[in-house]
Amino acid sequence: MTVQTLPLDDTAVRRIRSDFPELGALVNGKPLVYLDSGATSLKPTNVLDAERWFAENFTAAVHRGAHTLAAEATEQFERARESVAAFVGADADEIVWTSNATEGLNLVAYAIGNATAGRGGAASAQFRLEPGDEIVVTESEHHANLIPWQELAARTGAVVRAIPVDDSGQVTLEAAAEVIGERTRIVAIAHVSNVTAAIAPVDGLVRLARAVGAFVVLDACQSVPHMPVDLHALDVDFAVFSGHKMLAPTGIGVLYGRRDLLNALPPFLTGGSMITTVTLESAEYLPAPQRFEAGTQRISQAIALAAACDYLSVVGLDRIAAHEHELGARLVDGLQQIDGVRLLGPTDAVARTGLAAFDLEGVHAHDAGQFLDDRGIAVRVGHHCAQPLHRRFGMTASTRASTYLYNTTDDVDAFLDALSGVRSFFGVSA
Amino acid sequence: MSGLESLYQQVILDHSREKHGFGLREGEAASSHQLNPTCGDELTLQVHLSEDGATINDVAWEGAGCSISMASASLLSDLAAGMPVADAPARIALFRELMRSKGAGVADDEPLGDAAVLEGVSRYIARVKCAMLAWVALEDSLAQLP
Ligand SMILES: Cc1ncc(COP(=O)(O)O)c(C=O)c1O
């Protein structure tokens, strides 16, 4: 990634910060320094207002009923889909609402399982797995992009294989080429790791997958909120992301799928709103995306996600990426100057986004996090839902600081300053 | 004392490093393995009994985790040595009550000995599980005794 765009200047960040009510909060008597956006982001007033505006004006179930409110709600709901589609370079009918990325990945895995069980007719034959077929992931996946595939493998006789990461936590194309082969049917990879911050070589991975006729599933949880992402240009088959990591509320996420594939895939959840004709014996299904949206939908959350996309677009994803790139580089530089810090992930700032996970020798991550919390600094501690990666690095837990558009260099400096006192507090160094 | 200093009292930091009772050995009457899935803290604890089975000679343990979980196991090891088996459930219950007291403490923490210094943990709900890890392992071990 080359970053040429001008990052956000101090005035711009100050203006952005004034849109986030929680940034005025005191935590343990200290102003909140929020460095946990990798887990979930703060929400600006326009997003909160959009959700409230919708709830106050459009109470109705979408795609059901014919009264005026129902028609207006449906229109708003579909307009939100268009906004979110445009935000990631997709078409509206390729966007399926889910609860979160985890549900999106499970949807794909279960639908492929259903295809393997013979559901979906001739069109779904392309998804059928045979015993011994391979599902390829990487060693650095979030559990959400690992366990659904383990379960699918257990149900179908397929095998999960993992591309090992190198010592800096990066997935290389050389390592991928050793694992992706003739039997590979699915390649499921994170665009950006939530632990190492490493940006995966998606183009090369797609090429390797295409060469053997495998589908590519992209976990875009840590990329879509933070950098411009064009899913058509990336040429992946499926992609998922979560609204709550990109300024929107919890309860809303997105599954993207190429139109022809979504329309060939049998459903996962079934019930109301996803059918054409139903008899007591069987049912016919609507085309995508409705086929995958059974039951009454999360409507105000979808409206709020569209408002979040608008907010991010107005600021500019390229500028947000440049800003986080600067903060990430400052984090990594500062961390490397603190005694006992071992960074998980590449030190080369070009290859990473604005988060950093690390081990602090002699101090457990929980204790480090508690010390920082006492100073109003919110970070993530634990395995960050990536146990295999932590095992690869020989540890069970790490501490992670993650930045977003509203963070300042002062936030990073306050964190680094506090962190440099942790080891002496716990009596590990003088 | 600031909140942080009452959580991490010097006794606790010392125990987290000294780890009394650390090291498993053969001849245990019962043992238990406990895991805290949110942070990966892990601990195996053994109960070693007197010949007549009425007294805990000592508890031995091994594990890896945060300073609170390690110190708590160490303090438990000190407390349990020589304790009548029949007394243990009440002590564990009292410690659990202390941990759930949200900073209020319990009327009489004397029976907990030095382990009462962990009272500060009860103000940090996210850390109560860390402090309970060894105690749950002891509870589970005792439940296996004939
Ligand atoms: C890389 C990555 N994948 C998947 C997820 C799962 O997201 P969610 O819990 O919102 O479904 C997360 C966040 O926790 C993540 O960072």
Architecture overview:
The complex is a heterodimer of chains A (430) and B (146). With 430 residues, chain A is α/β, with parallel strands linked by helices. Helix content of chain A is 37%, strand content 16%. Chain A has 15 helices and 17 strands. In chain A, helix 11 (317-336) runs parallel beside helix 14 (409-419). Chain B has a single domain (3-144), classed as Sufe protein. Chain: A, CATH 3.90.1010. Chain B has 5 helices and 3 strands; from the N terminus they run H-H-E-E-E-H-H-H. Chain B has helices at 3-7, 10-18, 67-80, 88-99, 125-143; strands spanning 30-36, 41-49, 56-64. Chain B has a 3-stranded antiparallel β-sheet with strand order 1-2-3, covered by helices on one side. The complex binds pyridoxal-5'-phosphate.
Question: Brief description of this entry?
Answer:
The complex is a heterodimer of chains A (430) and B (146). Chain A is of the alpha/beta class and 430 residues long.
- Counted up, domains of chain A total 2
SSE arrangement of chain B, N to C: HHEEEHHH
Broad structural category of chain A: alpha/beta
Beta content of chain B comes to 15-25%
Radius of gyration of chain B: 14 Å
How would the global form of chain B be characterised?
globular
Oligomer: heterodimer
What hetero molecules are bound to the protein chains? pyridoxal-5'-phosphate
